Structure formats: structure tokens, C-alpha cells
Amino acid sequence: MSTPPQLHANSEAVKQPNILLITSDQQHFSTLGVTNPRLQTPALDRLAREGARFDRAYCNNPVCSPSRSTIITGQYPAWHGCWTIGVKLGEDVPTVGDLLHQNGYDTTLIGKAHFQPLASRPEQTSLECQPTLRDLDFWREFQGPWYGFQHVEVARNHADEAHAGQHYGIWMEENGLPNWQDFFQSWPPDPSAAKREHAWDLPEEYHYSVWTAERSIAAIERSAAAGKPFFLWSSFHDPHPPYLVSEPWASMYDPEEMQPGRLEPGEMDAMPPHFAKTQQRQPDFSAWQETAYGNHGFNSHLHDQAALRKDMAVYYGMVSLMDREIGRILDKLDQLGIADNTLVVFSTDHGHFLGQHGLIAKGAFHYEDLIRLPFLVRWPDQVPAGAVNNSLQSLVDLAPSFLHAADIDIPGQMQGADQLPVWTGAADAARDHVLVENRHQPTALHLRTLVDDRYKLTIYRGHAYGELFDLQIDPDERRNRWDDPAYSEVKSILLQRFVQAEMEREPTRFDRIAGA
Questions:
Q1: In sequence order, what E strands does 222-277 have?
Q2: Does the structure show a pLDDT above 70 at 332?
Q3: Residue 284 class from Cβ within 10 Å (0-12 exposed, 13-18 middle, 19+ buried)?
Q4: Cα distance between residue 516 and residue 501, in whole Å
Q5: 305-335 and 208-226 helices cross at what angle (nearest 10)?
């Protein structure tokens, strides 16, 4: 089995590898054509065929900003400080891009960032808020540096949200769509405006997935022409709702062929109380409300099956359009003759519910559907082609693994595991557990989950209830064993393991160098 070369920035014999991180947003782990015959994803299937597929990958927080901040810092949200959405990642937090840039890399972010909130205060300023998002003159001047990326081109919106603008708006104007705002919700919002649903009137060639691919290709060409290695994050926005996409993708899949998840009778009976409330028409979640800002998913999840099938069909269409654009990026690597020296990783920031357990979208529900991720790695002659691996992976591991690939020392403040030996087949595993945080309120909604090879344990701040699933005999997570006497010893062992895991992830910024 081949192992990665020892790379040195000044070596003429071995070039530093390019690093291409491709992510989607809120993508269910099952939405890869290689594992799901109802879905067409030839580009992602190609990555799986030419690289390795990891089937036990997890996020460290199932909310956008904390998860994305973990990707670039190699730290858990409790350490990097962006503990939920509506909270900023401080610009003083070191990132993987900083280190790669210091070691000769071009560092670029194209697509969605979401490192900052949709509001700005003197003590917590944000570029990702109105009216700045629509101030194209500002974005014409600003292209970084930002969070370790020396060049950025970003867009905050999903589908036709009013947050559209930034570099994406500039691109639409420069490419012949001066009236681009007509295809998006207005800012300030117009409550009387008709709501778009499913089929977007925006021409396909102006879709942000096309923009993300085009600008990613431009960044690759720029680095290749300069003869420099690159770290590029191609950050796609879809298939995050709203369920809205340009034709022909909106009609690509037949809703009648969709198979949404379902709620089994009685499965909520042993769950923490907020789960059952999702199946009420007018649930009261006030017990979990502590601030003026709401909790994802704390609403009724009752839904019409026909409407869910249509939403799911459009969700699949959004994935397939994104996949086509990912294929364009991969083709460019081939055309430039740099694919063999490019480490490509594909994943997402967190998962998504499509009816599983009666749930829609996301929330404080740490089922596999939400915290488990699609995860692909390709590096020709380094990562075994066609491999399928069940070793535990985690987004906090990306930064240290990228640094190892670039032969750069991993700093002590990074908390992730170095997965490169696992990716290349030189090691069986880099971790025996994964930790998932979720703190949507300061104290009222605060939970953490431990996942190991067989079990999943979730604890809630200030509460005696929790969750324990035996994923080996109950992979669909229908029976919560938290209060099951038959699992009392397992629960005790896992709780002790949880405390050990919390201690083990404590970072060490500096080594001890003296007795006192």
C-alpha cells in the first residue's frame, strides 16, 4: 500500500500537493448515486470510484456557522467560539489557510462562507449582513484576505433569498443579467410578494452552482499559471432549502419515485420531550427558549406526503445540478494535468431530514440523518481507488489532515485527528469516537453526542433524560435505550468514556519546555 510522500516546500523533487475541498450544504449522507440508484451524481460517483468513500463521517455541530468554522480551524465550536448561528467566528482565531499561505499556498474560498451573522454590532462586526450584502461596490473592492483565504468570492443566499448579492451579484451583472434582483426576494422584504416554489425562473446559466464552479475553475487556472500549489475551498450552497432550482433540474426527478423517511408508531415515546412535540400541530417549545432568537426545528414537523415527495424530488435536482458543476471542476484538473497532484475531499457541513423520524430539515435531533455525512477522498497513487471504509471521520479532522498532506507541522491548538494515514490505507483508524456539539441557546438547549463504532450517546445540559442507540442492532435508531435496564452497564461505560473524550480533546497550544 502506498503512503504519502514527505513533502517539503523547497524541494524540487516533490511538489506540494494541491488541496481541493468541495462541500455542499445540508446534504443527507444517502444522496450519492454510488449508494442511491434513484439519484444521478456521476461526478461524485467518479470521485468514489477513483478514490475512497468513508461511510462513518460526522459533523461536529449540525449547524452551519459552527460546523464551517470547525472546518477551517481544526477546533470544536466550544473552543473556536462560533458556538451557533448568529455568532461570529473571531478573525483572530488561527486557521488552516493561514498556515498553508505561510508555506507557499494560494488560498481561496469560492461560494458560501457563513462565518459571520446577519447582524453587526460594534463588539461583533459582520460583513455578512444587510445592507452590506447588497452593496456591490463594497464587494468589488473586497476579495480578502479573510479567515486565512487570501482571495474570496462569496455569496450568502440560498435559492432566491434576499441575502443575494456580494460577488455572486457582481458576476451576474458582468455576465449579462443586470436585473438579477428581479429573480430574488427583495430587500427590504416585501411581505406581499408571491413566493417561488420548486421551479426557479432564474435561467440555469446564472445559478450560483454554476457561479461557484466557474470561479473555482478560474482560481485553479490562476494558481496553475503561477506554478503555485493551491488550497481551494469550493463551497456549494445546495441542497440547503428552500427547495427551489432552475429547470430542467426542478423537473428532473418524479415525485412519485421518491421514498421519504417515516415515523414509526411509538418511536418517540422514550425520547426526550422535544421530539414528540414536533408531531403536534401547535407545539409549545417555550421551555427551550432563552433568548430572542429561535431554535432550528422547534416547530411542528407534520407534513403532507405528496408535498414532501415533491420537495425531495427538487432536493435531488439541486444535488444533480451541483454534481454537474463539480464535474466541470474535476475536468479542469485533468485538462491542466494536475489531477494526480491534487488531494480532493468532498463532504458537507451537516445532514438533513427528509421525513426520517417524522422530521424535516434540521434541529436538535442528533439522528444519523443530521450528523452523518457523505465523505469522499481522492489522491491518485496515494488513496486506494474504489475503497470503502468504515473508520470514523470528523470535520474537525480536515485541517490537520490537510497540513500533513502539505508536510506542515500540525499546531497544538488544533483538536482534530490526522486522518491522512487512514485515507491512504497506511492506518486502520485515527479515532475511536466522534463528538458532536449543539448549543443553540446559552443553557436552555445545549446537548452533546458521543458516537463510537457501535453506540451513540446524547446528553442534555441540566436534564436527566438522554439518548442511547445501539447502531449495530438498531441502525435506524427506533429504540432509545437510555432508560433500558438491559443497557445500564453500557450506558455507564459510555458516560465514563464521554468524560474521557472531553479530556482527550483539550488542546495543547505550547509544549512544556521547563520544570518551572
A1: 230-235, 244-246
A2: yes
A3: exposed
A4: 28
A5: 20
Amino acid identity, position 299: N
The predicted-structure confidence for 183-232, as pLDDT tens digits, reads as follows: 999 999 999 999 999 999 999 999 999 999 999 999 999 999 999 999 99
In sequence order, the 6+-apart residues with CB closer than 8 A to the CB of 50 are 378, 380, 385, 386
Confidence of residue 10 (pLDDT cuts 50, 70, 90): very low
3 state SS of 180: helix
How far, in whole angstroms, is CA 134 from its chain's centroid? 25
The DSSP code sequence of 414-470 is: --S---HHHHHTS-S-S-S-EEEEEESSSSSSEEEEEE-SSEEEEEETT-S-EEEEE
What's the confidence (pLDDT) of residue 15?
82
Check whether 5 has a pLDDT greater than 70.
Answer: no
Is 11's pLDDT higher than 90?
Answer: no
Average pLDDT, the chain: 96
* Cβ partners under 8 Å of residue 301, min gap 6: 278, 279, 358, 359, 360
Q: How far apart are CA 442 and CA 379, in angstroms?
A: 41
The dihedral formed by the CA atoms of 57, 59, 60 and 66, expressed in degrees to the nearest 10: 160
CA 136 to chain centre: 27
Q: Residue 12's pLDDT is what?
A: 38
The residue assigned the cell 462569496 is 154
As a whole number of angstroms, the distance between CA 22 and CA 13 comes to: 28
Helix (H, G, I), strand (E, B) or coil at 387: strand
Question: What is the reported pLDDT for 8?
Answer: 34
